[in-house]
């Protein structure tokens, strides 16, 4: 297996640049990169619960709860109680949340296109397949 420390450095560079890009994009909304991850997850899984997000993203429940509360206060997320379990909070995006999601999603697509400039479709597909495998292996290694 080919391993160079610069591989991890490159992941770090891409991550830090992306976080900065999203934080700048969201500056006026008072949200951060971390909030955007939850916002996008709610958009794709409308009607999910805070617990679902925590499990899907492998993120601490308290961190999810703080972000959801902030997005609710900012008017981006609607929170309701589950009819069968009043402890369970069901999440949906408000109209403003949907607009923000569209903006973030569009910016994500543009950024991804810029990152993959010069890569063939096949190489991009291989990259995402390998990235998915690495994410799964990372989670499995922790468990």
Q: In summary, what is this structure?
A:
With 143 residues, the protein is mostly helical.
Characterization of the model:
By secondary structure, the chain is mainly alpha-helical. The protein has a single domain, classed as Arc Repressor Mutant, subunit A (Orthogonal Bundle). It is built from 6 helices and 3 strands. The protein has a 3-stranded antiparallel beta sheet.
List the helices and strands and how they pair.
Elements: H1 5-25, H2 33-44, E1 48-49, H3 50-57, H4 61-73, E2 77-81, E3 89-93, H5 95-115, H6 121-142
Antiparallel strand pairs: 1-3, 2-3
Helix pairs in contact: 2-4, 2-5, 3-4
Largest beta-sheet details: 3 strands, antiparallel
* Order of helix and strand elements from N to C terminus: HHEHHEEHH
Strands ordered across the widest β-sheet: 1-3-2
Number of strands: 3
Mean pLDDT metric: 92
Task: Provide the structure class.
Answer: mainly alpha
Helix content: 55-70%
Question: What labels would you give this structure?
Answer:
three-stranded antiparallel sheet; single chain; 143 residues; Arc Repressor Mutant, subunit A; mainly alpha
